[in-house]
Specification:
By secondary structure, the chain is mainly alpha-helical. Helices cover about 75% and strands about 5% of the residues. It has a single domain, classed as Formate dehydrogenase/DMSO reductase fold (Up-down Bundle).
Length: about 325
């Protein structure tokens, strides 16, 4: 049996991106929600809940980027200049946010300024990711295997809407994370906020789901051509079921289930985008097959990933298991 190396490498990239979106998404979402948290205690609880894991979450962004560079150099060479501005905005925002996170822990008189910096960095990072996604769906101008567009080609009404959509989605992840990690007034505020964030997220999901098949005939053909809609119908149906289940669990006062359902909602959205763009890495013309590195390079990459990826997974699982309990401003993490 011959292994399809480009397909395996693309799967690793997809897995890394999904892990980043889910794990870094909730702590970026806390930054998005920072200005609207009810008091300083709530903000301290939010920071304490992510302190042991937030920097490790960003490991997955590095893994996805390195794998793209090594396994699909053509796609990397096209995508980087096409999305240089949102990528730089993302990286600078993450750095700015990280600095604010560390300085906030020591600040006294200037704490509110670092609160604002943490929120601004988190929101801009989330927005940049959404703009990048929207620009990718819109497509990239490629001539002779190289980017042939301008530096602002990524910017459109749809990419801006996608940016706000990711901000809203991360707010949903962040609020349901707080539902899981806190008690008392902060927990109650997070429940109310999660319900609102769910409505906002569903609104943006609807916009993307309606716009993309209307704007792009190839996406419409993928979802509705021949009998494809029968095969792919479980994706939107599952999205509706998950959204309803999330709303119901919030109403019933569950702690963990809302966070898990919000993750499932992101996974279904990720699956829908993957179905729409398959097999392209950089639409409309750079696919995983014509952008792949030589087989020897992919084999070497996969050998390294076979060593490092389990280590990252073990570390991530261990970190979350150690700091699994509710968080408190008095004694940090509880013993349960």
């Amino acid at each position: 049996m011959t292994l399809d190396l480009p397909l395996i490498c693309a799967g690793v990239i997809a897995f890394g991106v999904l892990m980043y979106v889910v794990l870094d998404g909730f702590d970026l979402g806390l930054g998005v929600l920072f200005p609207w948290m009810p008091d300083e205690t709530a903000r301290d609880l939010a920071i304490a809940s992510i302190a042991p894991v937030w920097d490790g979450n960003e490991t997955w962004l590095i893994l996805g980027g390195v794998t793209l560079f090594a396994a699909f150099p053509v796609a990397y060479a096209v995508a980087l200049p096409a999305f240089y501005i949102p990528v730089m905005l993302l990286l600078f925002s993450l750095i700015f946010r990280g600095v604010a996170f560390e300085f906030r822990a020591k600040a006294q008189a200037s704490k509110r300024w670092w609160d604002a910096a943490f929120s601004i960095g988190s929101t801009l990072a989330a927005f940049a990711q959404g703009v990048l996604l929207g620009g990718l769906i819109e497509g990239v101008t490629v001539v002779n295997g190289a980017f042939a567009g301008g530096p602002w080609d990524f910017l459109s009404i749809f990419s801006v809407v996608s940016g706000f959509g990711v901000v809203g989605g991360y707010a949903l992840l962040g609020s349901t994370w707080l539902v899981r990690k806190t008690e008392g007034p902060t927990h109650d505020w997070a429940k109310r906020t999660a319900s609102l964030a769910l409505l906002v997220s569903l609104g943006f999901i609807a916009i993307v789901s309606i716009y993309t098949p209307l704007r792009f005939p190839q996406i419409a053909e993928r979802w509705f051509g021949e009998h494809h809609w029968l095969t792919l119908a479980p994706v939107p149906l599952a999205t509706a079921v998950v959204a309803f289940s999330l709303w119901r669990e919030l109403r019933h006062g569950a702690d963990l289930a809302p966070f898990l359902y919000s993750i499932a909602l992101f996974m279904l959205g990720f699956l829908g985008i993957a179905i729409s763009l398959w097999p392209n890495l950089v639409p409309p013309s750079i696919s995983i097959f014509n952008a792949a590195a030589p087989a020897t390079s992919q084999k070497f990459l996969l050998l390294q990933l076979a060593i490092t990826l389990p280590m990252v997974l073990i570390y991530t699982g261990y970190a979350y298991s150690v700091f699994w309990g509710k968080v408190s401003v008095n004694d940090g993490y509880s013993s349960h």
